Amino acid sequence: MTRIIAGALGGRRLTVPDDGTRPTSDRVREALFSALAARIDFDDARVLDLYAGSGALAIEALSRGAATAVLVDSRKRATSVIAANLRSLELSGRSDVVTSSVGSYLAASRAGEPFDLVFSDPPYALDTADVEADLERLSADGWLADDALVVVERDARSSAPTWPDEFDLIVEKVYGETRVEIGRFTP
C-alpha cells in the first residue's frame, strides 16, 4: 500500500497493482511535490499521468487541488486498480482512466484543453529513446499549456533523456535509485 501525502485526501491509502508495478516511494513523492509546489499552482491544473501504475502521482495532484486528471497505462490490471482507487476516493468525476500504450495515446490527435502538469514514470527497463519519443510527442500537437511542467522519473542508473528544445530542464535530482527531472515547456 502507498498513501497520499497531503491535500484534502492526505493520509488515505491506495491499492497498488500486484503485477510488478513499482510505485513512487512516499519519500520521493514528498520531495517531488515540494519541488512542484514551488513552481505550479495545483488549483485548477489539468494533469496527465503516463505509465500511471497505481495512479498515485495524479491522485496526489488531485488531492492538492488539481481540477482534472487523465491516467494512462497499457496494463488492464493497472487501469482496473486505478479506477478502483479513484472510486474509493470519490475522484471518478474529475478523472479519466485510459487503457492504452503511451505511444498510441500520444500519437492520437489531441482534443480538449492542454495539460498543465504531466507525470511520466515509465518502467525502469524502458529504453531512453522511448522516453525521448514521448517528450517529443508531448511537445507537439497541443498536448501542453505554455509553462506546463513535465516530470520524468527513471532509474538513477539509466541514461538521462535529451529533452526537446521546447523545454527548459529546471530540476534534476537523484533520490537513492530514482532520478527525477522536471522540464518547463517554453514553446
Give an overview of the whole structure.
- This protein is α/β, with parallel strands linked by helices.
- The protein has a single domain, classed as Rossmann fold, CATH 3.40.50.150.
- 27% of the residues lie in helices and 29% in strands.
- The protein contains 5 helices and 9 strands; from the N terminus they run ββαβαβαβαβαβββ.
- It has a 7-stranded mixed sheet, covered by helices on one side. A two-stranded antiparallel ribbon has the order 1-2.
- The mean pLDDT is 93.
What key attributes describe this structure?
5 helices; 187 residues; seven-stranded mixed β-sheet; single chain; alpha/beta; two-stranded antiparallel ribbon
Write down the overall mean pLDDT.
93
Report the portion of residues in β strands. Answer: 25-35%
* CATH level 4 superfamily: Vaccinia Virus protein VP39
Count of folded domains: 1
Strand arrangement within the widest β-sheet reads 5-4-3-6-7-9-8
Query: Main sheet?
Result: 7 strands, mixed
Element string (H = helix, E = strand): EEHEHEHEHEHEEE
Would you state the CATH class? Alpha Beta
